[in-house]
Amino acid sequence: MARKPMGLPTGVEFAGDSIRIRFTWKRRRCETLPYPQTAKGIKAAADLRAHVISLAKHGALNDEKYAELFPNSSYVATTESAVVTFGEYAQTWLDSREVVKGTRDNYKGTLNLYWMPALAGIPMNDITPMALRKIIAATDWTSPGVKRAAISRVNALFNTAVQDEVVARNPATSIKLPARKKKIVDPFTSEEADAIIEWMYANFTRPVTMIYAAYFEFAFYSGMRTGELLGLRWDEIDLAAKTAHVCRIVVRGVVEERTKTKYARTVMLNSRAMNALTKAQEIAQERDSDRRRVRKSSPYVFQPSGSSPFIKGPTTTSGHFAKALEALKIKARNQYNCRHTYATMCLMSGMNPAFIAGQLGHSVQVLLSTYARWLSSTTDWTELGKLESRIGTKLVQDEK
Known about the structure:
CATH class of the largest domain: Mainly Alpha
Strand order of the largest sheet: 1-2-3
Order of helices and strands: EEEHHHHHHHHHHEEEEEHHHHHHH
Number of helices: 17
Distance between the termini: 107 Å
Number of domains: 3
Number of strands: 8
CATH topology of the largest domain: hpI Integrase, Chain A
Structural class: mainly alpha
CATH superfamily of the largest domain: Intergrase catalytic core
Largest sheet: 3 strands, antiparallel
């Protein structure tokens, strides 16, 4: 057992004929030094220990520096052959993520585009906050959202690396994320929505386009997300109960058995949504009776005119939507505002926010923060009326 004579500096002790210093860095707890057990050797050991602790405290102690300070350490011998580069660890991190293909591709693209060119061959322990900041400053970001996502990805990667004990600290922790840009909510009025639907039924009369009138009537009056609409199947529709079970989406032309929030839900259908389904049924039956069609039946509610059993993406529907807006001279906007229109119509009808949130598939907090303006509008004049009843309508007349 090591001797601990009285008067030795903190963290310094004798070990046989040598001197040992104790500190904590990664999994290392001590190092034995070839210093003589003299006053000069003891001071040198204490100074070295203080230097090591200072470097570790400021994040400046890495494997290379450790090897320089303790060239004969057994730790150095084991780590020299086990240096992990950013590129190696990034691949391991990506492979370990339990995410769907679309999300994995998104992570991979972000790493390859923004971080791998500069960091791929750099040891993980050598990557500092300054190195990340230089990459961020030198990158021509297409939007704050893209920048935010890229920083979030590398931050998550280093958080896992800390847990795996590959690095002692996360160099991305101190990097501030750009403010999240609030999505623009620009719903249609109920009159505009009905005019769009009416125009589509009147003008989309050809077999290749008539399904889109039913599609948009259902979109306006069910509040479902675009990917959910594309992935909706007849076996999820209960016509008797007037409900739709939402459990899958279409992402980048691929059907995925999940929703955006990863939770399935049941949407109650009003009369307008039910009317859209009736129209979709009629279109499906007409297609089944057409002898010229190679693909007749489809399990999906909104089947396109081509060979695919489902609409593969929002670009197909957006073209038809834009055509209706242009014809009606209604302000051009994204088709996702069909969902916003349904949400605001529900709020302005005085429906319970918790019920609306459940139907839309997100939290009450998200509903209230996204649609606060329309929630307030339902009671604004009532609240102002309370003041009017107190102050009356009598005007102050100028004295003559």
